[in-house]
């Protein structure tokens, strides 16, 4: 069982950077693939990034590839999303999630955080 809590969201100008954190509780954190999703107003939730349970592989949506970096620190039970070169279209509520493995599909997620808001102004 895993509980997740995001932090680090806020207001940033286009071209700026933010680092989101997702702190996990539960002794099985290292067994899960960790993911970031986002949802903008009036839009469906979309996949952003994933990192496998062993930290050996990452996956990114085309819209963020080259700008965002996902990482994890299993000793700290934390997953990060470093977001650079932010664009107004990145504005959304960002949520972290855990799955048995890794996936781009939100319905594969076993646990969810409640999200943190990122607003990018132009």
Average predicted confidence as pLDDT: 93
Order of helices and strands: EEEEEEEEEEE
- State the total count of DSSP E strands: 11
What is the tally of helical segments? 0
How helical, in percent, are the residues?
under 10%
Shape type: globular
Q: Pairing-aware structural class of the strands and helices?
A: mainly beta
Strand fraction equals over 45%
Unreliable runs: none
> Compute the gyration radius: what is it?
13 Å
Instruction: Summarize the biggest pleated sheet.
Output: 7 strands, mixed
Instruction: Please state the oligomeric state of the protein chains shown.
Output: single chain
Distance between the termini: 40 Å
Secondary structure: elements and pairs:
Layout: E1 3-7, E2 10-13, E3 18-25, E4 33-39, E5 46-51, E6 58-60, E7 68-73, E8 78-83, E9 92-99, E10 109-112, E11 116-121
Parallel strand pairs: 2-11
Antiparallel strand pairs: 1-3, 3-8, 4-5, 4-9, 5-6, 7-8, 9-10, 9-11
